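User: I need a structural model of dTTP/UTP pyrophosphatase from Limnobacter profundi for a docking pre-check later this week. Nothing fancy, just the predicted structure tokens so I can convert them on my end. Input:
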Amino acid sequence: MNTPVLPEHSGLPGQVWLASRSPRRLELLQTLGLQVQVFLAQSSPEAEALEAPFEHEDPLLYVQRVTQLKLNAALEAMRAQQFSGLVLAADTTVALNGNILGKPENAAQAFQMLQSLSNTIHEVHTAVAGAWLSNHGRTLAAQNTVQTSHVEFAPLPETFIHAYIASGEPFDKAGAYGIQGIAGQYVRHISGSHSGIMGLPLFETSELIRHIQTVAQATKRID
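Assistant: Understood. Predicted structure tokens for dTTP/UTP pyrophosphatase:
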């Protein structure tokens, strides 16, 4: 009889909080065997407002700033509700020639993004931030990381772009595409992390979780 690989076998906690609406991030965390509880500190409009970039903001600094804001909002709300444990926040942005490509607001914007990505190499930055909140609302440990991948698209036919937009898939995704969807057939090459491009780099996230847990446990012993 086969036995499952438990989180403890990898030095991970049994449960984490995920401050994200992304079903992809939830699924990726669950592949680690973790029990994941989604915690949403903000309404959807509030979260979208938080993700607004500054004018001419560097994409790498942007994704780190937004991720930290998401984590801070989650920690504040968890303290108010007297929740504790390890909470994770993340954000992903697509960048082309130093410009941020966020989630398209309409079909014309989606078409422009996809056309600009066609037959080019772009960057996908995913930042992750986490913290361990004690039963008394104190932050025992915190850590953040960012992972950058390079994605090369083959030429995207206009017939495909129009059909892809009509499917509705581009509208909740940075850069107007998801590598795990049908657009993945045009990805010629990636350098980096496939899971990071999806929204959560599993290697970096696992390392971050282990570090936070180790520091939190040491802090508890000191207390």
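Before docking, keep this in mind: Strands lie at 15-18, 35-38, 85-96, 99-101, 121-133, 139-153, 187-191.
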